[in-house]
Structures are given as C-alpha cells and as structure tokens.
Design brief:
Structural class: alpha+beta
Protein name: Glutathione S-transferase
Number of helices: 10
Shape: globular
Number of strands: 4
Strand content: 5-15%
Distance between the termini: 46 Å
Helix content: 40-55%
Order of helices and strands: EHEHHEEHHHHHHH
Organism: Stenotrophomonas cyclobalanopsidis
Largest sheet: 4 strands, mixed
InterPro entries: Glutathione-S-Trfase_C-like, Glutathione-S-Trfase_C_sf, GST_C, GST_superfamily, Thioredoxin-like_sf
Low-confidence stretches: none
Pfam families: GST_C_3
C-alpha cells in the first residue's frame, strides 16, 4: 500500500516515530508537507475531508483511511508492515508501551514549555528550569527504568521479545533525550544497559542506517519536541 504522511516540514517531532516505522519496513510513502509545504495539511485540519478529522499532525492517509495520533497510526501500520506480533494480546501490549512512550514525550515537551505551548521558551525560562530539574531527577529515571525492566522481563533484547515498532520508538526517544539532556543521559546510561544496546541495534538495521545517513533525517533542533537548552541540563 502507498502511504501519505502528514507532519510539519521543518522538525522531526512526533512525526518521526511514524517515519521510522515506514523507513524500517521499506514502505512506499510520501512526506506530504516536505514535498508540498505545510499548507497541504490545512484541508484535513480544518475539515471536512474524507475520513475522520484529525486534531493535529501527524496523520496518515492509507487508501481511503485517515488515521491520526502516533500510537493509533503505529497500531494500524504494525500488522501490515510486520512490526508487531500478530497475537491480539501482544498487539495490545505494544500499544500500551507506545502510549507510555507518548506520556513521556508529552512531559519532555512540557519541560521547556511548562506554562503554555503558545508562549516562547524565553517567556517561561524560570519555570522551565524548575520543571527540568524534576524531569531529570524524577521522571526520566522512572520512565526509562520501567522500559529497562520491560526489556529484561522479555528476554533482554526487545520489549516484545521480537523486533517491533516499539523498538523504533524507544530508539527515537533515547536519541531525542541524548540531544536534549546529554549530561543527564550520560549519567543515567550505566543504569540502562539494555535500552542502550537496543538503541545501538536499531541504528544498525539496514533501512534505518540508510535513513539516518540520508537528507530525509532532519537534525534535532530547538523548534521540535526535544530541545537542547544548556541551562536545563545537568548530570543530576
């Protein structure tokens, strides 16, 4: 099937979680906003269009279906792209893990925008500094420690005992956190050997390695979810 992915053209953002799945599977897709500009999304966001109206990107068009929200998109793509076990119980487990990743992604974004997403970071720097301290010291160890235990409980290599879209999303999560909090992630790394090994294996998968080396993989920047502000990073 041919897919059309809709997401903002200048950042990785949440769209990257979907993009990694499409790239890993070698799926045929078009990154619509990068080809046609961000305005191509407006008819879908303002409606009405065929299919359900999305609240925000990313969303995916597959034939006549329109699917929004990262976890829902990956749950839809997983069976077709062979990126999730076929058993319903395992598919539900994958969705649960993906939604937990989404929870942390939302907290990470709110670290640098703790008051309002509509205000500039510069308008909430003091609050962001306080929020970053809590994120680094409390939330990252809690979430990442959970994923480390999940991998350990499932044989030590994958959270689902086999390669899945959850592996790809954990790779993206760790890569983003490495950019955002390099000092803190370096300090946490000795406690996350299974996650770090998974991150390395994903980066070496042939299609992912080719994608990471291509122009299609945008660099992390201070317009996306994972933003590096030196004043928000520390080893503790």
């Amino acid at each position: 099937m041919h897919y059309a992915l809709y997401y903002w053209s200048g950042i990785q953002g949440r769209g990257e979680f979907v993009r990694l799945a499409l790239e890993d599977a070698g799926a045929e897709y078009v990154d619509m906003a990068r080809v046609h500009g961000d305005a191509v999304m407006q008819p879908f966001l303002q409606g009405p269009t065929e299919g359900g109206q999305p609240f925000a990107p990313p969303f995916l068009k597959a034939g006549r279906q329109l699917i929004a929200q990262v976890a829902a998109i990956l749950d839809f793509l997983g069976p077709t792209l062979d990126l999730v076990p076929q058993a319903a119980s395992r598919r539900m487990q994958a969705l649960q893990l993906q939604l937990t990743i989404a929870d942390l992604v939302a907290e990470v974004h709110d670290t640098h925008h703790p008051i309002s997403a509509s205000k500039y970071y510069e308008d909430q720097k003091a609050e962001a500094k306080a929020r970053a301290t809590a994120t680094r010291s409390e939330r990252l160890p809690k979430f990442l420690g959970y994923f480390e235990r999940v991998i350990e409980a499932n044989g030590g290599r994958h959270p689902l005992r086999e390669h899945s879209y959850v592996d790809l999303s954990l790779f993206q999560l760790l890569s983003g956190l490495d950019y955002m909090f390099p000092k803190r992630m370096q300090a946490l790394s000795p406690t996350l050997p299974l996650l770090r090994a998974l991150q390395e294996r994903v980066a070496k998968r042939p299609n992912i390695a080719a994608y990471l080396a291509s122009e299609r993989r945008l660099a992390f920047n201070t317009n996306g979810i994972f933003r590096h502000y030196p004043e928000l990073d520390a080893a503790t």
